[in-house]
Amino acid sequence: MRHEYHYLPLDHKQNIMSLKVTLLGTGVGIPQPGRSQAAVLLESELPLLFDCGAGTLLRLEQAGMGLEALDTVVLTHLHLDHVSDLLALANARYLSGLPGLDVWGPEGTEVFIKIAQSVYPNLDKMQVSVHELLPMDSFSVKGFDLFAEEARHSITSLAFRIEAMDRVVVYSGDTEACTRVAALAAGADLLIHECSFPEPFDVTNHSTPRKLGNLLCGVAIKRVVLTHLYPQAQEHEDEMESLVAELSGVPTVVGWDMMNVIL
Ligand SMILES: [Zn+2]
Ligand SMILES: [Zn+2]
C-alpha cells in the first residue's frame, strides 16, 4: 500500500494545481531516530504549517521551504511537542528581516505568547499575531478553508478539516479515537491521524490501531496516514498500518518524516 502514495522531490518552482502534504515531523516528545516532533506542511498556492514541534525548523530547511513564504502556523494544541519551534520560527523570520508570524491556535495561545514575551521582550519585534479558535470555528487563511473540531486529549486540542484545490485533508492533532474526528474526516481525500502506540497498549488521550481502525470503519475516507508515533511503536509500524487498514477498510500507511502525499 505504501506505493499508492507519490513520493516526489519538492520543487517549489513547479506550478502545482494540487495539494501537497509533507509530514515534517511524525514523532512525539521523546527523541527517536527519523522522527522529529509534530509538524505538517500543506501547500496549495501558498504554504500553511500545522504544528511546530522541536525539529521543525530543520525539517523546513530540508524540505526546501524558505522562511520568506512561511508566515502562518495553525496549532492543534499547546503541548511542547507541537509548539517547541514556534518561537524559533518567529525569531528566524525576525533575524532574516521578514515580517511577523500569524498564529492560529486554541484558547490559551494568546497567554502562551504573552508569557513568552515576558521572558523574551524582543518577541515584540518578532510580531506574532494570535488568532484564538474555538471548536466549530471556520476560517480561511492562505487560500485554505478550515474548520476546527474538538479532539479528545488531555488538554484542549483541535482537529482540522482543511480544504483547498477541491481536496480535503483532515489532521487530527493529538486525540483518542473519537467520533467527532471521524465525522470531521467523512469524505476526506486524506486523513492524517495520530496513532501513538501499537497494540496491545491501552491508553487514554491518544489513539491505538484497533480503536482507530474500528472507529473509521464505514467512514468514506480515501486514505489514512498515521503519525505521532511513540518510540514504543518502533518495529511495529507494519502491523499498525495493516490493522488500521483491515479494520477500517481504508488504505493506510504509517507516516515518516519528509513523506510527501500529492492530492
Ligand atoms: Zn498532546
Ligand atoms: Zn503530541
Please give a handful of descriptors for the protein shown.
single chain, alpha/beta, Metallo-beta-lactamase, Chain A, 14 strands, globular
Would you mind describing this structure in some detail?
It contains eight helices and 14 strands. It has one domain: Metallo-beta-lactamase, Chain A, CATH 3.60.15.10. α7 (209-216) packs parallel to α8 (237-248). A seven-stranded mixed β-sheet has the order 6-5-4-3-2-1-14. Strands 7-8-9-10-11-12-13 form a seven-stranded mixed β-sheet. It has helices spanning 56-62, 80-83, 86-95, 109-119, 123-126, 179-184, 209-216, 237-248; strands at 20-25, 39-43, 47-50, 72-74, 101-106, 128-133, 138-141, 144-150, 158-164, 167-171, 190-194, 224-227, 252-254, 259-262. It is α/β, with parallel strands linked by helices and 263 residues long. Bound molecules: zinc ion (ZN) (2 copies). One zinc ion binds at residues 28, 38, 79, 81-82, 174, 228.
- Helix residue percentage: 10-25%
The secondary structure category is: alpha/beta
User: Could you say which overall geometry the principal axes of the C-alpha atoms support?
Assistant: globular
| Strand composition percent | 25-35%
Helix and strand succession? EEEHEHHEHHEEEEEHEHEHEE
Sequence of strands across the biggest β-sheet: 6-5-4-3-2-1-14
Poorly predicted ranges (pLDDT <50, ≥5 residues)?
A: 1-15
Radius of gyration, whole Å: 17 Å
CATH architecture descriptor text: 4-Layer Sandwich
Number of strands: 14
| Sheet having the most strands | 7 strands, mixed
Map the helices and strands.
Layout: E1 20-25, E2 39-43, E3 47-50, H1 56-62, E4 72-74, H2 80-83, H3 86-95, E5 101-106, H4 109-119, H5 123-126, E6 128-133, E7 138-141, E8 144-150, E9 158-164, E10 167-171, H6 179-184, E11 190-194, H7 209-216, E12 224-227, H8 237-248, E13 252-254, E14 259-262
Parallel strand pairs: 3-4, 4-5, 5-6, 10-11, 11-12, 12-13
Antiparallel strand pairs: 1-2, 1-14, 2-3, 7-8, 8-9, 9-10
Helix pairs in contact: 7-8
